[in-house]
Amino acid sequence: MKETAQAAPALAGAAAYTRPAARLLPSPTPESRAFWTGGRDGKLLIYRCRGCGHFLHPPGPACWRCRSTDVGPEAVSGRATVAAVTVNRQPWVPGLPPPYAVAMVELADEPDVRLVTNVVGVAPEEVRVGMEVEVFFEPWTPEGGSADDRIWLPLFRPVAAAGGTDGAW
């Protein structure tokens, strides 16, 4: 679903990042809703199995390790390490001008849990495997949607650019 931009407050230490005019947004499922809305409270919510204690992503109704159905969202630290990165140079999404870094990040809380995201606040060419990053959230309301439909996209920036904030806008 294509989204329209809303004003974003300035973020100390992230002067290199300019919020795009538009992004493609997900359509949350019952399992993924917490992931997409946790940013409202400045929290990155990842499903955790209460049977074996491991985190799992993407969220689902059962743990892929132990098959327990006792799973639910829990806040993680928001820290991660870039595991893979590519720089997109094609104008695929109107309103999202290239170049931008698309990265797979490993969560510090459990490195085999990985998210595909954008790394911002640094030139795309400077994003490197092994770079430590931290989450922050970009709120979006779907075109024609209401405040109840708002999602908070988890994006990552270098830890040094976070400036000691709590990770939320």
Report on the architecture of this protein.
The chain has one domain (33-160). Strand 1 and strand 2 form a beta hairpin. The chain is 5% helix and 35% strand. The model is unreliable at 1-15 and 164-169 (pLDDT under 50). It has 169 residues and is mainly β. The chain contains 2 helices and 8 strands. The strands form 2 sheets. The chain has a 5-stranded antiparallel sheet. It is globular and about 45 Å long.
Portion in strands = 25-35%
Distance between the termini: 23 Å
What would the principal axes of the Cα set say about the shape? Answer: globular
- What spatial order of strands do you see in the largest sheet? 6-5-4-7-8
Secondary structural class:
mainly beta
Number of helices: 2
The pLDDT mean sits at 88
> How many beta-strand elements?
8
Rg, rounded, reads: 16 Å
Q: Topology as H/E string? A: HEEEEEEEEH
What's the structural domain tally? 1
Q: Which percent bin holds the helix content?
A: under 10%
Show unreliable segments: 1-15, 164-169
Main pleated-sheet profile: 5 strands, antiparallel
